[in-house]
Amino acid sequence: MASAPLNRNRASLLHKVRYALGNPAKVVPHLRRSVRDLGLRLRHRDHVAYYRAVMASDTARDPRAAVGSRNEERWLELGRMQFDYLLDHGLAPGHRLLEIGCGNLRAGWRFIDHLDAGGYYGIDISPDILISAKETLARRGLQDKLPHLTLVRDLTFDFLPEGRFDVVHAHSVFSHSPPEVIDECLAHVGRVLAPGGFFDFTFDRTEGAEHHVLREDFYYRTETLVALAEKHGLHARFMDDWEKLPHGQSKIRVTVPAPA
Fold this sequence. Notes:
The protein is an alpha/beta fold. Helices cover 41% and strands 19% of the residues. It has helices at 13-22, 27-43, 47-61, 63-66, 72-88, 108-114, 127-139, 179-192, 222-231; strands spanning 97-100, 120-124, 148-151, 165-170, 193-205, 211-213, 217-220, 235-238, 250-255.
């Protein structure tokens, strides 16, 4: 379930001092990450280019850690959690699914296995993690399912057909995205959703001040993201049942309202 307390500001000096005192072993790794990120930000002023460089660095060390899994067991557990949730919400073999930020197919390989051939489309901004995704695909023996794995540099979906996908899924993407990236996605996702389809995304939730840590981890209020969706004519609702699961992020579902 979502982390508490939800009003914590991880960017504040007070929080950093308290965290350092309580977790001394993590101080040096955090300083290394800060130095690395400063160098990357100086070389890549655009957020997508910057985060692509972050993923290249993280993937070189460990593809599982690059998508937020500390080991193989947790990688499998988080993928299964995402898959089971969508299965419980009606994901059928004949559906078409677009996964934004598919990573190394932590959940994707289960979606690919479940869906009919050609029913899965995964996109990511990182060429390095997509190479790892292809390795996952081959390791799981899913070549005959003919999934699409595509490198992108934005979330306009301009190369995808209108009304194509029954489900659009983005796990731990908006938690690493500034407002303009989320706004771009919400401005265009409605076009590629099939009638009756939905877009699920997770985010790091705060009930205090919205903030970020090193431009990598972003914390949003629920009402901010709901308002962004509504600005683009979409309906958004907080998914209470996701909160019961052992994961630190929250989830919102976006749909296109039916014509009057």
